[in-house]
Fold this sequence. Notes:
Chain A is α+β, with helices and mostly antiparallel strands. Chain A is built from 11 helices and 18 strands.
Amino acid sequence: MDRRRLDAAQAAVRSHGLDALLVGPSADLRYLVGYDAHAMERLTLLVLPGEGDPWLLVPELEAPAARASGADQLVELRSWDETEDPVALVARELTDPAAPGAVAVSDRLFSVFTLALQEALPGTGFRSGGPVLRALRIRKDPAELVALRAVGAAIDRVHAEVPGLLRAGRTEAEVARDLGELILSEHDEVAFIIVGSGPNGASPHHAVSDRVLAPGDAVVVDIGGVKDGYCSDMTRNYAVEHLPAGYAELHAVLEQAQDTAVRAVAPGVPAAAIDAAARDVISAAGYGERFIHRTGHGIGVDVHEDPYIVGGNEELLAQGMAFSVEPGIYVPDRYGARIEDIVLVTEDGAERVNHRPRTVLLAG
Amino acid sequence: MDRRRLDAAQAAVRSHGLDALLVGPSADLRYLVGYDAHAMERLTLLVLPGEGDPWLLVPELEAPAARASGADQLVELRSWDETEDPVALVARELTDPAAPGAVAVSDRLFSVFTLALQEALPGTGFRSGGPVLRALRIRKDPAELVALRAVGAAIDRVHAEVPGLLRAGRTEAEVARDLGELILSEHDEVAFIIVGSGPNGASPHHAVSDRVLAPGDAVVVDIGGVKDGYCSDMTRNYAVEHLPAGYAELHAVLEQAQDTAVRAVAPGVPAAAIDAAARDVISAAGYGERFIHRTGHGIGVDVHEDPYIVGGNEELLAQGMAFSVEPGIYVPDRYGARIEDIVLVTEDGAERVNHRPRTVLLAG
């Protein structure tokens, strides 16, 4: 890790007319200094002024972990001990009573810290840090594209094992335990595991349950992990022994929708147009009411980040963006289906990082 | 779960002179309505007005999960779909342009939401929600005490297995994997796992690494899980085959410090006095500089919550409070030691919920 991201972020702080950006434990912090800090009641905060040297405030007992991350090679480390007030410490460094100015805080900083900072710095404007780092994080550099391809291949290898796991008589939770081990064998950590069998597949964010798999169940498997700091996220649909009635037709529509949306990806196309491309195919087939979520989300150091592929988002896609294309169709009380690949925006189109077949695979 | 906690919280909203308390995904939300929502970029928010019915706003695709939690039996569920602005939706319900008033937000709500709410509700005062729920959460009711005893016994049973896991030649990570399974066999989820062997034990928040255990290593094992919504957190020290030089003496001081602190616990005693009780014993033995953290933290639906057992906290202990007593001594580059039990404040003293021996146990 080098100082390039910090330099670019400091330039963004200046161009947004801010005095400083304050970054708590989050993907933003990992992105800037490589430190995967734990968000908790003790304040950890990277202070990135527009001018001057950035510094990282950590609780004294987290200092060894911060140093082990190598963050101290990039920014000065300062620690606070158990009886100090870390908010007052930050406020003292930021305050110029003659010119209160404006600061931004990272989006996922706990509100308790932002409210305390606001109280300690009356007159200072507080803004969301998302827009400041947005332009940096939304377009991936070549090293990040390499990382996203690698983690995409990793989750491909996990999905290749799924048909062997989905046997009638096993519970979703048992399958998830095996998936956890497989994800870990290919990643540094598990991000999430969804095994939605039968009617559970009709809830897009159902995680896992003790439901027992039965022949004729459709099973939505949506899994992701983190490898070298970058996230995977991939969904495929399986059927235990045989497909339930109507599922083949529904899935064929979904395959066409996902493919159409991916083929619509290119620099200069609005994000909303990718959502519309998938939605139009599904609506034309009569399933429009059953596609109840956005088509995708950006991915990188966070599983969900900009750009969001959703109606109303007129942002133009650009080379180096990375996001999911994941239309779904959900039939309450029966089953659901979702096909999800991560794509990278290339000079003139899209590159998929996932390459497993997108058809329903028989399992068990 | 019944409405008693919601009623008490609404009374607290009124007594704090607030119009409403806004609660995002957090232990606060679990505490109030039993819904373990995922904190993410899509807003989930419980709106608890001082007067009138509370309601829970969820992203449409989280509605099935919210209903599965039973939260809809307690509060009205409202969902927002992918193209709506949930902040505007909340602001509309809260705004009385004639009387802007004040609201509190839960401490761990992401700042991006609080900043957006502030922008949507100019003139409205925003405060930290911690103090509003503090009085409710800090004193446990009889059912909560039962849950804390049960989860304390669960982590006792896990620690009973630790000596069999710490063999020379194994890595901390291998031990942690086994601990994860053992914790899960006794809890609903794993909260955290620290295996600090040899010099790694000198960093209180070291998690796990690929360091290989060797004979003569001291090993700090600090583990916790969640069972029926309540947390365990317990630390013991082990030695692989034999104790390193000086460790027995250090540990004897620590045992005395922990015991002295627990015996100091009683209603009416300031939290800081418990910290001082442990610290005085350690300082008198010449290790004062090596006890680098507070003595404890409250525990309940969060692993760390009020009351904090730390110098400067003059809050008086009261019957029903639950917290850790966990002094430690850390010798850089050599080893560390920490003894941690959860105690409940009784009518006239303390009840430990952990009952394993506090001496160093030989392993391997």
